[in-house]
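[audit] Reproducing an earlier prediction to check determinism. Same input, same settings, fresh worker. If the tokens differ from the archived copy the diff job will pick it up downstream; this log only records the rerun itself.
[audit] input (381 residues):
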Amino acid sequence: MNTKNLVENVPPATEPLDKFFAVIPAGGVGTRLWPLSRAAAPKFLHDLTGSGSTLIRATYDRLVPLSGERVLLVTGDAHREAVCRQLPEIADENLVLETEPKDSGAAIGLAAAILFTRDPDTIMGSFAADQVISPVGKFQDAVREAIYTAATGKIVTIGIKPTHASTGFGYILTGEPLNIAGAPSAHAVVKFVEKPSQAVAEEYLASGEYNWNAGMFVAPVSLMLHHLKANEPLLYEGLMEIARAWDTPERVIVKNRVWPTLPKIAIDYAVAEPAADAGDVAVIPGDFSWDDVGDFAAIARLSSAKENNNVKVIGEGARVFTEDSTGIVVTDTKRVIALIGIQDVVVVDTPDALLVTTRAHSQLVKRAVDGLKANGDIDVL
């Protein structure tokens, strides 16, 4: 008798969904959205689409039906007050505050380590706080499939079906179907590939074998930490030291001592890519629209704001006059803004900084931030 097969066919004692814990990394400044997004008020704290909800609030709201109160949030220490104001539901022990940026490897790795010390059987799902997703129901369906797939011992990424040959995203090469109960669309991942050239991106799109890498991961915390330990042992040891002290009175002391010593590395390099090489990664192709709101052209595309004579206007009480113009105006002042005879313009008006560009050049806003930093004008960054 093959007892191994009998063991494998025994239904799990706990429903995988009951072991799910959502993690929201809320980091990054969003320099291509300056001067609206800044170090002290990054893009996830803003309502960038005119929906009435900030990006971080919308992220939380679409995860809660899956996780309930099991939500852990990782963000910068400087954002504590704003985050707690927008998400008062987050318990103090589930609010992880970084004393300095250490990239996604440390942020997501610490979340995994904390959850592991509490319950080694936890399945975590990491979803960035600054993405726009719709419809929410299809996103939640994909996450459920990812949870069932993760329960079989996989790190699962939710890929996005490409709508065009983008050179701004990494890609995932999809392999064979995995035939997992509860996850009919699960496939193996052959490999992750970096942001391609235009010609290569067009090849990827034409092949139908690639998905965009949206940075969404669902995995058993034990498997995440297994690969982290194998590939970044120093990072792993530091994160576990913090995690062991997390639910004790020593939390802050240990975190403040260890965190600055941790190496900086993205979770893709520390875990996802080596795990894919080991055959431990799966993908759920997401049948929903997704955008990381990377620039003002994205805001113009995604905004639900009404147009004022072919110009989208975002900002409560905005005072904008337009004639023979197109584009977008984002303002948090009461200053009158008049656009006459100008096409595809982007105007962002704040009390201490004004940006004027075009949609075609919106990806270059980061250069202004770099230039201001080089000149020492950090008060507006």
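[audit] rerun output stored. Observation attached for the diff report: Confidence is low (pLDDT under 50) at residues 1-13.
[audit] end
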